[in-house]
Every structure is written in C-alpha cells, then in structure tokens.
Amino acid sequence: MVQALTIHDIARLAGVSSMTVSRAINQPDRVSQAMRERVLEVVRHTGFVPNATAGSLRSARARLVAAVLPTLTGPVFQEMVRALNQALAERGYQLMIGQGGYGPDGEDELLHAVLRRRPDGIVLTGILRSPNSRRRLLSAGIPVVETWDLTASPLDMLVGFSNERIGEAVCAYLHRKGYRVPALLCGDDERAQRRAKGFKHMAQLLGWAVSAPVHLVPAPTTLAQGRAGLAALLDAHPLTDAVFCTSDMLALGVLIEAQTRGLAVPDQLAVVGLGDLDFAASLQPALTTVRIDGTRIGQTAAQYIVDRVEGRSVDQPILDIGFSLVERASA
Amino acid sequence: MVQALTIHDIARLAGVSSMTVSRAINQPDRVSQAMRERVLEVVRHTGFVPNATAGSLRSARARLVAAVLPTLTGPVFQEMVRALNQALAERGYQLMIGQGGYGPDGEDELLHAVLRRRPDGIVLTGILRSPNSRRRLLSAGIPVVETWDLTASPLDMLVGFSNERIGEAVCAYLHRKGYRVPALLCGDDERAQRRAKGFKHMAQLLGWAVSAPVHLVPAPTTLAQGRAGLAALLDAHPLTDAVFCTSDMLALGVLIEAQTRGLAVPDQLAVVGLGDLDFAASLQPALTTVRIDGTRIGQTAAQYIVDRVEGRSVDQPILDIGFSLVERASA
DNA sequence: ATGAAAGCGCTAACAC
DNA sequence: GTGTTAGCGCTTTCAT
C-alpha cells in the first residue's frame, strides 16, 4: 500500500459520485443494477476495503458490540463467546472482546478502553463490581446485557440463571442419591459462592446432619486445585462422601485425586461438576455435571442488543434460561 | 445519556480551547500544570470518555491491533492471547480478536471485517491459506506477525518454531527411552501434520523397523477423540507401545482410555502431549509434553508490531523461539 | 503554552 | 436513482 484507497477513488474510477459508491456497497437495493455492477466491479478489482472508522463516526453506529470477560478467560465462556460472535456476525456486527490486562485498576480502565471505541452495545459477564464502572456504563446510554447470573435489578437487560438454584438442585440430587456427608469445592468468585449458598440452604431444608464444609480456591479454577482441594477436604473431613465442584476442571482434579487414592467414584465418593465442558462426558467415570446453555446465552444477548440498536423493543429483557443437571456416572 | 459529551463540551466547561483539552488528555507534558489540573478535573467530574473513533480517523492511528485466530479457539492459544493483550495494553494499544463465524467464505470475510477497522497491525495464527487473503493483507500495508510456525518466506514478520523439529525431538526421545512401536494421534491441521512428518523422518533416520501409523482427527482436538483414537490405533496395531499426541487434550483422552483398558503408563504405553496446558503437570501419571512459550510469542509479537507502528526498526523479524520437551511420568 | 483553522473518510439529509 | 452539501469529533498544522 502506498496510500489506502478511499471511496472517492472508487467513485472517480467508476465515473460516479462517492455517494453512489457508498450506496452500492451498503444499500445495494437503492441503486440501479447497472450502476451497482459497475461500482462493485471497480471495488473488486481494486480490492477496496471501506474505512469503518469513518463510517462509524459519521453515522454514530459502529456495528460493534463489546463483550467484557473476567480477567482470565477459561474454557467456561467459550461456548457463549462463540455463539455471540456468530450471531452478531450474521447480523453484520462485529464482536470486540475486552479482557483485562490493565493493571490493578483493571476494571475501570478496561471499561474506559472499551467505551472509547463507542460500541453499539455491551455484554457483561460477571465483572463490573465497582459502582464507578456501573455509573459510567449507564451514562454511556447504550444497551447492556448482563449474563451468567440473575438479579432483580439489572443494569439494563439480562440473560442468565440462578446460581443459588443450581446449588439447591445439586444438593437435592445428592441427597436423593443417598449421600450424606457433602462438601463443596468452590471458586472464590461471587457466582460460585452463590452456588455454595444455595447448596447449604437446601441442605438445611433437607435436614442434613452436617453443615457441608466449603473449600475455597482462587478463580480461575484448575485441575491442580481440584486435586489439592479434595486432599484438604478429606484431611479435615475424612467421612466426606460427595463433592460438588463449581467447575468441571475442579471436578476432573477431584476425579484424578480420588483415583490416585483408590477411592471408588461414585460408590465411595460422588463428584458433581459445573459447565459440562466437552471433556465431561468422556471422563472415566463420566462426569455428572450442571449444563448451562452458553449458546443460548450468546444468541439471546446478541439478539437483544441488535434489536435495541435497531429500534425494536425487547419483549423480555430479563430472561432466566435455567440449567440442567446432566446425570452421568460420577454421582 | 442524552448525548455523549465531546471534547468541545469539556473545553467550554473548563474555559479553554478544545485543543488544550486534547493535549491535557493525550500529551499532558505539553500543557502547563495549572491547565492540566483544571481540564482533568472537568474530565473526571463529567465522566468524559474521548471518542477514539474520531481520533483514529484524524490521526490515522487506531491504537488497535487485530489477532486472527482459527475458527475454533481452544485453550492452546490462550496463553499467547493473554500475553499479547497485556503487552499491547501496557503500550496503550487495544487487542481486537477476529474469530470466524462468517460462514463458508469465512477466511476472506473475516479478514475483510478486520481490515475495515483499520488496525495498526495484525497477528496471525496459522490461518490465512487463501492467496486472495494474503494479497489483500499485504496491500493493506500494515505490520503483520505470523506465529506458531516457521517459514523462510513469511508475509512480513514471524515469531514461531519448527513443527517438524518438534516431531523429530519427540521421536528421538521415545527412541532413547526404549520404545519401539510408536503411533501418532494427530489433528488434521497443517501444523500438526508437519509434526507428524518430522516424527516419521526421525524414525527413519533412527532405523526404526515399523513406520509409525498416523491416526488423524479433525481439529480442534478433544478428549473424546483421544479415547477413540487410542482405541482405533490399538485395534489396528495391538503392539503399539508409544503414542505422540499433537495436543494435550488428545493425550488426556489417551491416558484415560489406557487406564480404562488396564494399560500401564508409561510401562506398557508411553504418552506424549503437546502444549503443556495447565492440567498437564497434575495428571496421574503427570504428562510428558512439549512446551511452547505462548507468553513469549505474544509479548514478542506485540513488541514487533508496536515498534514498527512507532517507526522503530525490528532487528530480527524472523524469530525462532524453539520449544522444550518437558519430561514427566507418562513417557 | 495555547488557540484557530482545516480536514481525516464517510454518510445523513436534502435536492434534483 | 443519483448528486451535492455539510459535518461526525477529533488531531494536525500553523500561528501567536
């Protein structure tokens, strides 16, 4: 490249005005067929790529949606991100991922960096604790979708599920299966702890004798933490017969540690994970886990944002997509 | 928000010209201290976020670098992406991830979508086969870094390693350890197959009796494919005593399948992975694998691009960062 | 050290 | 259906 082509160059080469070039590219229906063909031929021949920066500035529409993920992106959100990306691409929008890496004041800085690009909407994933950030996001006046959680008072829209109810469901399941000395292996993020809370609540309702011990590990959770976590739990509570792990990676670690110790799963120890990552079904024993429909979250979030950007109203701005307990061999 | 604030609003509120506001924000040294404080106070108070779209358009510098990843992003590139993101953020650049999701003509469309935003540079990860895309990228005239591979004639700059040599090293290692009936479990992407080629080449040099069978599986590779792959290999070649898997996920599947079949690792079967993902060290037995320094790739790529964008020359535009064979218990 | 003028490349709004 | 004009919000450039 010597100097990037502009729409004016194309216009000159095609012998038309630059407005016609713009229309031929962006609103082909509003141009006669002959014109369209002539212009697009020049575009193809020159390899012209329109400058979206300029277009965005003028039209105040960036065709860009930002997703803000927790500092360390594990495999957990992958399904959602892929669906989000695809659904947006199909509608002519691009996804921009904001990922931290901004030092100690990360959250505010990250949001600032994202808002500078003037995205048409933002998808949040359990970040944004700081009231400062929330205020700033609100005053940006763009559609926001919060995900992976449920609250009565979202910033704007929400597509999620109840983490408490997940804990309750797993607890009831283990109780029904006859386990009686449960323990929890839990990431230290807010949502994971909400699951633990639900679990304990249900345990009380069911009249479980012991209060389940909770072993907290720093997120993002790893297999190694699962192994060490089970070891620690068994040290302190040797009679433990069931472990609910707030991620499949933790559960895999627990499975491996149990096997190393000669503990039979599920007979001597029940293991339940969360996420239903692609390896869960193929483990030995296959992992019983909680499935979250990340694809649906991503698609719905995309839909909500695009609808709002394009002036359609969103029927159900707070959507609980639930979850499902996938019963396999480990519990 | 009613209407987003502009630099002019801030200028009016601070009683200065908009140029002074711009300087106070972007080149604080070029403004007197009193001025700077006055302006930044207004900025803070109003929550003003500058419009990077406008700035990019005028200055022809987006402070944006794009990374183009294969359609399905596994955990493999995570380390690199994180390092890239962080290194860019520290230098005041933002990372934008391009991810496919654009239908059958994905590659060209993805590149087009990325180039429309006029990024200052592009980091490629083993995508971009189409000559069309390569031509278009070249004519965009921006710095490009290819990664995760080695070639004598890169598009522009390159930070990678030799996939052939990885195959050779693993083969030699297994030979030294006394294994004699090797097999390969290999993703169907180009780079994985390059590793297989290196492996077979070394096997020949070492005078290995059998030519190692290769079982190909579609990328991105999964644990389930590892299990099924080992089953298939053992069916066809019951005497197999060593498997080189071109990803740690495949290796994990092989480990699980071996254990299910009562095959002792490493005594009856050696297993080698690739990637050294965070779970590799904690498996039972711990996984022998090939480590690639994703952090270094990401940091170097960021450095190269920023250096070029800011007019500094890059000393060693083709950099082989090598790899290391991490010897653990599985082989 | 600060300000005024001009313009980046595109599209909204309006003419014809 | 096509063209003209103006301006999005910022920064470059030049003047003071």
Write a structural description:
Two copies of one chain form a homodimer. The first copy, chain A, is 44% helix and 16% strand. In chain A, the strands form two sheets. In chain A, strands 2-1-3-4-5-11 form a six-stranded parallel β-sheet, sandwiched between helices. A six-stranded mixed β-sheet of chain A has the order 7-6-8-9-10-12, with helices on both faces. By secondary structure, chain A is an alpha/beta fold. Chain A contains twelve helices and twelve strands. Chain A folds into three domains: 7-46, 434 Repressor (Amino-terminal Domain) (Orthogonal Bundle); 64-161 and 294-322, Response regulator (Rossmann fold), CATH 3.40.50; 163-291, Response regulator (Rossmann fold, 3-Layer(aba) Sandwich). The first copy, chain A, starts with 6 loop residues before the first helix and ends in a 5-residue tail after the last strand. Chain A binds a DNA duplex (16 and 16 nucleotides) through helix 2 and helix 4. Chains A, B: Residues 5-59 form the HTH lacI-type domain. Chains A, B: This is LacI family DNA-binding transcriptional regulator. Chains A, B: It comes from Hydrogenophaga atypica. Chains A, B: GO terms for molecular function: DNA binding.
Round the Cα radius of gyration of chain A to an integer and report it.
25 Å
CATH superfamily (homologous) name of the largest domain in chain A: Response regulator
Shape field of chain A? elongated
The termini of chain A sit apart by: 61 Å
Nearest-integer average pLDDT of chain A: 94
Helix content of chain A: 40-55%
List SSEs of chain A in N-to-C order. HHHHEHEHEHEEHEHEHEHEEHEE
Strand proportion of chain A, as a percent range, falls in: 15-25%
The CATH class designation of the largest domain in chain A is Alpha Beta
**Number of distinct helices of chain A:** 12
Q: Which quaternary structure do these chains form?
A: homodimer
Helix- and strand-based class of chain A?
alpha/beta
Low-confidence stretches of chain A: none
> What's the number of domains of chain A?
3
Organism (chains A, B): Hydrogenophaga atypica
GO molecular function (chains A, B): DNA binding
Domain HTH lacI-type (chains A, B): 5-59
Protein name (chains A, B): LacI family DNA-binding transcriptional regulator
